[in-house]
Amino acid sequence: MNILGISAFYHDSAAALYIDGKLLSAIEEERFSRLKHDNAFPFQAIQFCLNSVNLTIDDIDAIAYYEKPLRKLERLLETFVVTYPFALRPFLQAIPDWLGQKISVEEIIRKKVGFSKKIYYVPHHVSHAAAAFYSSSFNTAAILTVDGVGEYQTTALWKGEKDKLTLLKSISFPHSIGLLYSTFTAYLGFKVNEDEYKIMGLSAYGLPEYIQQVYRLMDMKSDGSFSLNMKYFSYRESFRMFSDAFIALFGPPRKPGEKVEKRHRDIAASIQVVVEELLFAMLNHLYTQTKSRNLCMGGGVALNALANGKIYTKTPFKNVHILGAAGDSGAAIGAALYVQRQLRGSSPVQQITSLYLGSSYSNESVESLLSCYPELTYKKYDSEIDLLRATAAKLAKGKTVGWFWGRTEYGPRALGARSILSRPSPRAMKDTMNKIKRREEFRPFAGSILQDHVHRYFYTPENKYYSPFMNVCLIVRENKRKELAAIVHEDNTCRIQTVNEDNGRYYRLIKEFYRQTGNPCVLNTSFNVMGEPIVEHPKHAIEDFLCSKMDALVINDVLINK
Prior knowledge:
Layout: E1 2-7, E2 14-19, E3 22-28, H1 30-33, H2 43-52, E4 62-65, H3 69-83, H4 88-102, H5 105-113, E5 118-121, H6 124-134, E6 140-146, E7 153-161, E8 164-172, H7 177-187, H8 196-203, H9 211-215, E9 218-220, E10 226-228, H10 244-250, H11 262-290, E11 294-298, H12 305-308, H13 311-314, E12 319-322, H14 328-343, H15 363-370, E13 377-380, H16 384-396, E14 401-404, E15 418-422, H17 428-437, E16 446-450, H18 454-457, E17 472-475, E18 493-499, H19 504-517, E19 521-526, H20 538-546, E20 552-555, E21 558-561
Parallel strand pairs: 1-4, 4-5, 6-11, 11-12, 14-20, 16-18
Antiparallel strand pairs: 1-2, 2-3, 6-7, 7-8, 9-10, 13-21, 14-15, 15-19, 16-19, 17-18, 20-21
């Protein structure tokens, strides 16, 4: 059975293709449109998925859409009625878009995509829960889905048993951890639905001195359930997330581009602490309801790596699975997985261990493209080991290398297919990389480490710790902090990706770097500069290489220098 999953019209639109229970291709629309977090209908992503396996839309048996558009419109109308007349202006601006395309999903799929068979509309949090649980290796698990808002739900507790998802409890709009965190993102002068991770990074530089003020925004119960005091929020009735009462409580908001002051750092630290306390209260309650030591998490809030790293010490869970694409792009996978399980396809769905699911390019196309850049020199290697030795030698000497290899990864994290790499020390490597990326100095970098060595460098819950999707921050062991100085954050944590044979050539590169240096870890950041999506085409990689201070670029078997 061929099932196409689609997410669209909120952020991170994407498409994913399952054939007989196996995920064969998936990609976000932003990679082609070059609009970061693009929410447009993913025509290009759909076409890529079909082309990647030489299918047409007529070969697809079912399409799974990641939410119910009419239910979402219903919530928008109810919100307008409750907040009238304050919400009149944003409502009048939003409703034409809704009536024009957001509720016309079926018409778009039928007429523009040309699909004539069954379309399944999977509730938003069911899509998140399915992506979280069905992509894992667990037969049973507790499941928590947390985001801004779906149709109505913002938070849901589930139990997963084989093919079955059982909803235990939920919280609905306007009460939302995701929107709470986004409100502080906006208040601190960053972009909502894009820069939440900056608040997480900034929190390490502050003290949680505003915790009591944050708790005044809500009523929280011992089981983690909560309701927000809406007098402090205005996202229901205006384009601004926070109200005048919020400003009276926390002071003037930071404007974009303004200097980050101590107050801002302390507020970031405070909201991070409160969100963690909310999540851990929910998770502890979820354990009492399920008695399962296995946990799956989904939704945008599940990308809060700092909170994720504390699950093992703050809750009874022993095995945690968070898909790399935990947000809305991953809901395209979840919708398809849910439909697959309901229809009982001809073969069982497989655990997702790799997210290298996107586009790739031939050496010939790369060399042809390079002929247009006379300012570049390059060498094509016939031997992989020679290429890896040359690349690892550059990294060992403190050079920065753009790394473009194989199929692009799915989701927001660069997992060694479209990455910029460097050695993880000395500390100055962080400053060098920040200049290449053109981003704020307070933001940390992640590390990719050989899985067999992770317990020697980080405090892990077990010796064979597995974190392939870079969704967890762990504390760096004290005797290794100098060796990893460029990726150790202010709070002594690092967001890590464990690397093994599933990572193909990237794994072999780090093994070679380890052979040359004795260090099994590299600094890994996404191959893009501020404001743009991760590179998709070799041309994007070359342009970023030319306009930055990157030292070298590897595309497939070709090593490029300026």
